[in-house]
Amino acid sequence: MLEELSGGTVNVHRVDTEPPLPAITEKEVRHATRRDQTLTTLVKVVQTGLGRKELPKGPYTHVLDELSYARGVLVRGTQVLIPSELEGRAAALAHEGQQGIEGTLCNL
Questions:
Q1: What tens digit of pLDDT does each residue of 5-38 get?
Q2: pLDDT for position 35
Q3: Is residue 64 packed enough to be buried (19+ CB in 10 Å), middle (13-18) or exposed (0-12)?
Q4: I need a surface site. Which of 28, 33, 47, 83 has the fewest CB within 10 A?
Q5: Alpha carbon of 52 to those of 39, 60, 64, 77, 86: distances in Å?
Q6: Are 63 and 76 in contact (CB under 8 A)?
Q7: Within 13 Å, how many C-alpha atoms sit on residue 43's CB side?
Protein backbone atom coordinates (compact mmCIF):
# COMPACT_ATOMS: atom_id res chain seq x y z
CA MET A 1 0.00 0.00 0.00
CA LEU A 2 1.35 3.43 -0.92
CA GLU A 3 0.65 6.68 0.86
CA GLU A 4 1.48 9.86 -1.00
CA LEU A 5 2.73 12.69 1.19
CA SER A 6 3.27 16.34 0.40
CA GLY A 7 6.32 17.23 -1.63
CA GLY A 8 6.12 14.11 -3.78
CA THR A 9 7.26 11.79 -0.97
CA VAL A 10 5.71 8.34 -0.91
CA ASN A 11 5.58 6.00 2.10
CA VAL A 12 5.51 2.28 1.37
CA HIS A 13 3.55 0.40 4.05
CA ARG A 14 4.13 -3.13 2.82
CA VAL A 15 6.24 -4.97 0.27
CA ASP A 16 5.33 -8.54 -0.62
CA THR A 17 8.25 -10.69 -1.67
CA GLU A 18 6.26 -13.88 -2.21
CA PRO A 19 3.25 -14.44 -4.44
CA PRO A 20 -0.08 -14.10 -2.65
CA LEU A 21 -1.88 -17.21 -1.48
CA PRO A 22 -4.74 -18.21 -3.76
CA ALA A 23 -8.17 -17.26 -2.44
CA ILE A 24 -10.53 -19.99 -1.30
CA THR A 25 -13.32 -20.19 -3.83
CA GLU A 26 -16.99 -20.86 -3.15
CA LYS A 27 -16.65 -24.05 -5.21
CA GLU A 28 -13.84 -25.29 -2.94
CA VAL A 29 -15.92 -24.56 0.16
CA ARG A 30 -18.92 -26.32 -1.36
CA HIS A 31 -16.93 -29.47 -2.20
CA ALA A 32 -15.13 -29.50 1.15
CA THR A 33 -18.45 -29.04 2.98
CA ARG A 34 -19.76 -32.20 1.30
CA ARG A 35 -16.68 -34.12 2.51
CA ASP A 36 -16.81 -32.74 6.09
CA GLN A 37 -18.80 -35.14 8.28
CA THR A 38 -19.63 -32.51 10.92
CA LEU A 39 -20.85 -29.95 8.39
CA THR A 40 -22.80 -32.60 6.46
CA THR A 41 -24.67 -33.45 9.67
CA LEU A 42 -25.28 -29.74 10.33
CA VAL A 43 -26.65 -29.29 6.79
CA LYS A 44 -29.24 -32.03 7.42
CA VAL A 45 -30.28 -30.46 10.73
CA VAL A 46 -30.48 -26.95 9.23
CA GLN A 47 -32.49 -28.13 6.23
CA THR A 48 -34.91 -30.45 8.01
CA GLY A 49 -34.84 -29.42 11.67
CA LEU A 50 -34.57 -33.12 12.51
CA GLY A 51 -31.79 -34.56 14.65
CA ARG A 52 -31.19 -31.47 16.75
CA LYS A 53 -31.26 -33.43 20.01
CA GLU A 54 -28.89 -36.09 18.64
CA LEU A 55 -26.37 -33.51 17.47
CA PRO A 56 -23.19 -33.82 19.57
CA LYS A 57 -22.13 -30.75 21.52
CA GLY A 58 -19.72 -28.76 19.42
CA PRO A 59 -18.78 -25.26 18.32
CA TYR A 60 -21.96 -24.86 16.26
CA THR A 61 -24.65 -26.15 18.61
CA HIS A 62 -25.05 -22.82 20.44
CA VAL A 63 -25.63 -20.94 17.15
CA LEU A 64 -27.67 -23.61 15.35
CA ASP A 65 -30.70 -21.32 14.99
CA GLU A 66 -28.53 -18.71 13.27
CA LEU A 67 -27.24 -21.08 10.58
CA SER A 68 -28.57 -21.30 7.06
CA TYR A 69 -27.63 -23.29 3.99
CA ALA A 70 -27.36 -21.68 0.58
CA ARG A 71 -25.65 -22.73 -2.65
CA GLY A 72 -23.99 -25.69 -0.93
CA VAL A 73 -22.42 -23.61 1.85
CA LEU A 74 -23.36 -23.23 5.51
CA VAL A 75 -23.43 -19.63 6.70
CA ARG A 76 -24.06 -17.70 9.89
CA GLY A 77 -25.24 -14.31 8.76
CA THR A 78 -22.51 -13.13 6.40
CA GLN A 79 -19.90 -15.55 7.78
CA VAL A 80 -19.13 -18.78 5.91
CA LEU A 81 -18.53 -21.91 7.98
CA ILE A 82 -15.16 -23.13 6.79
CA PRO A 83 -14.79 -26.92 6.48
CA SER A 84 -11.99 -28.35 8.62
CA GLU A 85 -9.82 -29.25 5.60
CA LEU A 86 -9.70 -25.54 4.61
CA GLU A 87 -9.18 -24.04 8.08
CA GLY A 88 -5.38 -23.95 7.82
CA ARG A 89 -5.47 -22.20 4.47
CA ALA A 90 -8.11 -19.74 5.69
CA ALA A 91 -5.94 -18.89 8.71
CA ALA A 92 -2.88 -18.44 6.47
CA LEU A 93 -4.86 -16.08 4.22
CA ALA A 94 -6.03 -14.09 7.24
CA HIS A 95 -2.43 -13.80 8.50
CA GLU A 96 -1.05 -12.88 5.08
CA GLY A 97 1.11 -9.79 5.24
CA GLN A 98 1.66 -10.11 9.02
CA GLN A 99 -0.57 -7.15 9.84
CA GLY A 100 -0.87 -7.82 13.54
CA ILE A 101 -3.78 -9.15 15.56
CA GLU A 102 -6.33 -6.48 14.61
CA GLY A 103 -5.57 -6.69 10.89
CA THR A 104 -5.77 -10.49 10.94
CA LEU A 105 -9.09 -10.46 12.77
CA CYS A 106 -10.52 -8.02 10.23
CA ASN A 107 -9.65 -10.51 7.46
CA LEU A 108 -11.51 -13.43 9.05
A1: 556 666 565 555 565 668 899 999 999 999 999 9
A2: 97
A3: middle
A4: 47
A5: 13, 11, 9, 20, 25
A6: yes
A7: 19
Residue 2's CB is within 10 A of a number of other CB atoms, namely 8
How far, CA to CA in Å, does 2 sit from each of 10, 11, 102? 7, 6, 20
Spatial contact of 30 and 72, defined as CB atoms under 8 Å apart: yes
d(CA 35, CA 86): 11
pLDDT tens digits along 46-95 = 999 888 887 878 888 889 999 999 999 999 999 999 999 999 998 888 77
Could you tell me the strand order of the sheet in which 67-70 lies? Answer: 67-70, 73-76, 79-80
